[in-house]
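Recall that a protein's primary structure is simply its ordered list of amino acids. Everything else, from secondary elements to tertiary packing, is in principle encoded there. The following example makes that idea concrete.
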Amino acid sequence: MGATLAELAHRCHGELRGDPDYRINRIATLEAAGPHDIAFVAGEKYLSQLAVTHAGAVVLGNADAGLYSGNMLLSENPRLCFTCVAAMLHPPVRPPAGVDAKAAIQTSADIATDAAIGPHAVVESGARVGRGVVIGAGCYVGRGAVIGDGTWLHANVTIGADCVLGQRCIVHPGAVIGSDGFGYARDGARWEKTPQLGRVTIGDDVEIGANTTIDRGALGDTVIERGVKLDNLIHIAHNVHIGEDTAMAACVGIAGSTRVGKRCTLAGQVGVVGHIEIADDVHITGATVVSHTIRQAGTYSSGTPLESYSSWLKNAVRMRQLDEMARRLKKLEQKLSAISEGGNIEE
């Protein structure tokens, strides 16, 4: 496709220094870039590569402009600028509109004329598929489900009955939206399944990673608000509510009926217990276990950092002794208090 540097600067809000008519065809790393590629300095440790790169242009932060003499796009937010450049130069290749002959579409389904539905996809009765939607090979769209305009379901995505996806969502292969929540009642030694009667409702511009699962609500809905970004292998349990523009990295698990606020970030392998609330603008570091409600914005962590096995073993033993150590410390404090007050010390 390609674009001139002037076009890239205009669309991506970068300040151009260099030849406005110079044509860029694709993005590349600093090391691999050729004369019609554009590269990005992803961090300070890569700045030294500017002296040897063959890139036709680079994207830099304003503070680093003096380190390079070639064509450049400058920005206060160079990563965002580069993201825009990459999207311009490498737009997704949309399949042509139409329904593949090997797809199974129920007659009562409402399919927009410009939707693209791949082979072996199934769209059940009463489902609605909006304008410009792409449904990849092997996808399943359940009875009464709604897929908003411009949404893209990659191969083998499952959308359960009555679930709703907003506009311009992206759902990656293997994701399951609207599976039953984990709800059971005890009957002596046995478990009886509790019907899961709610839906999953997803706002506009949400992206859901490969093999992520989002369970339908037990009675009300599981809700994913506008702009949420979910990585691969995440599990969202029934009746969870996730606020706008929150992002979660791989292997996060959110237990049932928890509410996560807006603009939160959860790093990889965070686990969140059920029936709690997390305030807006909370950032949780990797492998943290969130066991109680968080009411104030900020950064939170739990767990212990990596250490040698011998040190970990010693500390694990000490952890088991903490209760006894606390009792002994309390006795010592009582003795010290008695001394300071001029009293007698009792054994």
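The first helix runs from residue 5 to 12. The domain at 98-300 is CATH 2.160.10.10 (UDP N-Acetylglucosamine Acyltransferase; domain 1).
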